Amino acid sequence: MSAVARVRAAVSPLRRRAAAPAYLPVAPLPTVDALVADLRPEEPVHCIRPATLAATARDFVAAFPGDVLYAVKCNPDPAVLRALWDGGVRHFDCASPAEVGLVRTMFASAEIHFMHPVKARGAIREAWARHDVRDFVLDSAAELEKILTETAATGVGGELGLIVRLALPKGEAVLDLSGKFGAEMTEAVGLLRAARPHATRLGIAFHVGSQCLEPLAWRRAMEVAGAVIREAGVAIDIVDAGGGFPVSYPDMEIPALGAILAEIEDGFERLDLPNARLWAEPGRALVAAGGSVVVQVQARRGDALYINDGVYGSLADAGVLGFRYPVRCLRPAGVEPTDMLRGFSFFGPTCDSADAMRGPFFLPDDIGEGDWIEISQLGAYGACLRTGFNGFDRARIVEVSDTPGDDIPLSLAA
Ligand SMILES: *Cc1c(COP(=O)(O)O)cnc(C)c1O
Fold this sequence. Notes:
The protein is an alpha/beta fold and 414 residues long. Helices cover 28% and strands 21% of the residues.
């Protein structure tokens, strides 16, 4: 079977209403090079590497001394979820009814945790009564009231898990997540006490911020959690160390996963809660290496390449945040690209001048119109961020067989 038959449109799986498709391996998956030679795509093509995703998940699950909840928002593609499941992930951190529904449709026995601190009332009822979600996060008394009222209103019984999300002081994460969610320490003490009588299991959670480069951030967060737990004086069943595990991008030094896990384990042991379970909610670290996008160069002006994807597509973080990704030129026909590299910036396809990515992205000096570029380490916060702005919402998704290039560090290898 040709690669073409396996390509599908990159419509958000959260917008599809039909049941998630089954991913039966009907033919060997193509390589990215074969795919580009075959399709000569003029629209962005998202490449998913199921083997890489499964291997990364397997490594993380083996290394983490507790339950691993995949943060679905990072990449909700059914092929990604399936690969993570194959790699041993059984817990899912969902934040919306659509995510909950998708995961439940695909995996009847998955443990789904509703980890958004501000939920619609209907979303709570649906998750509880229809999708057997039992764990809900909260960071306010109002949300606690909402969860208790709405789960009871369904008339469906069950063992409620309540997890209090703690705010943290800003650390060295590239993306801070405490400005929006999380209870301050004193408030968290009150919430733990208020939630305890209603909870079959009671937990405390934090998120150090996405792409956190500092292992000590987890230690400090554990210390804050410990202070809150001691002050509250109630039994704690779950300590959730959140997400934020970093992956390697060009010229970014990241700590080894082992160094982070050592801080988490040590911090957890110091809490001295022998009956508590440890959780983590990795997103980026599980899926970054397993996804890439192939774009085409539509024009070159000096050191700027006009490409067919941009900040309103899958390259949002390359815009304002200036993320750089590993890149390589693909030119299936004609003269081989030169070995000489030059730093390029990118412009995306929309008419907005903010649709620009400064890079630099190092590519062959002779790259030009018609060449393709594979942009890697984009399995996280890539395809899922696509918008339809300016009509550039056509993109495709395909599963491929090749591993990311030798120069692309696997997330957990550092
Ligand atoms: C986004 C998010 C995650 C995943 O974060 P990463 O930085 O991708 O690991 C985990 N937990 C919560 C609550 C989140 O919002």
